[in-house]
Write a structure and sequence with these properties.
ADP-ribosylglycohydrolase fold; alpha+beta; 502 residues; globular
Amino acid sequence: MSTHRGFESSVLECKALAGQGILKIRWHEFLERAPDAIPSEINLVDRVEGMMLGLAVGDSLGNTSESMLPSGRQAAYGHVDNYLPNRHAHSRRVGLPSDDTQMAFWTLEHLLREGGLEPQYLGAAFARRQIYGLGMAVREFLTNFKSGMPWMHAGASSAGNGALMRIAPVLIPHIKSPGPGLWGDTLMAAHLTHNDALSNVASVAIVDLLWKLLSCETVPDRLWWVETFAATCELVEPATHYQPRMGHPADFSGTLSQLIRQYVVPALEADLSVTDACAIWHSGAYLLETVPCVVYILARHGHDPEAAILAAVNETKDNDTIAAIVGAAVGALHGVSALPPQWVSALLGRTESADDGRVFELLRDAGNKYGYGVSTLVASRVPAKITVRTAKAAFAAGDPVKVLRKIYWVKIVSFLQQNWAAIDDLPDASGVRIWFFSDVSTVFDFIDYPSRANARAALRVNGFSVFTAEDFDFIARPSPPFEWQSHPNGEIYSSGRYWIGQ
């Protein structure tokens, strides 16, 4: 799979895309400067784990009553202060993920695997798994990406909050070595799914806010939250004017920073409740609603992580995403040690349907890889690994492999290099297997599918074509005998790294 990158530097990549009008942002020298180093006395283990687990906790507390108006939620559940019974966990009161947690931790998983942000591969990681509660914009992105659109063109034209909700882990590789690549990675990650200036601006501003919160040694005052977020927006937001949905606030047309200054500050001065303040601009998934909710909640309750997260859960409509963003912020400021322990202990740590403890495993790996360490809490929640002898593990270098099907598929991966595939039936009519092999007849990977039609569709989506001598007269097809030989980059297709699932 091509990376579809023109520059190795994420900053240069984004600057070029912005210059071409593809990436919507007002380019500013801020995006070419490194953020200030985080003070050495900060307990980064506590703060980083707090940021990520705060996100997961906020999502899990909110996603069982998502999209309800606060009054309807209150009538149905009363004041929510813990996980509601979850139908996906036999009605247990446990924390399960939705798209916010899934895509945030898959981003962290991607960063660990690739050693940095590679948007084409991150898109493939999103595309090969089931996402719970995904929004319309991400659904459109997935359709575009699976059709073969490269990452910089696949995003939906949407000012929804689907990029903002998952952006926090982009900070983690830069924590010990800050550089301007933080902003390039932020913009590439945001633009991947949302081709919109408001989304890009908000993502840069929240990453800047999170970075500064990780560095804070005291709790900021109320106006700091507003000024910090709005000032960053002002640096990079284009002159595009956005309008609210359904006239809330009435007669507004302008930029995100203007909305924050014109409405959030007066609401704070009037000391409105979160419910009353959010009624001014509403609290849905549109960023002109989500962002002022987040900023207002943090300004009003940022000194108290529990109160901030519960305000998001109980007093907003898109409560899982707003609580996830608020949770990431208060977690970055106060650390995981300040989150209510009952929330963390009842968080199952899933990113999929049955991978309990996966978020803790990823946090452990990140702490080790990026050098800020691992807490006892996180280490204790990492599931024990059971060694399973898989079919791939059963092959040793040089073992013969029988590829029976004579119809080959081919994908040109670079000059004078092809990858090949063939679809064989599995025993007992249990499905089919795609074998992947090289020009010199070495088999290096396989994926099983329930039917030949599924396998063919997957091959086509991933850039393979049926080989014919007429269409590919410039290459020679491999021939038996075949033998197993691991690929230098590992199981490149079955791991999902270069494969879009079907």
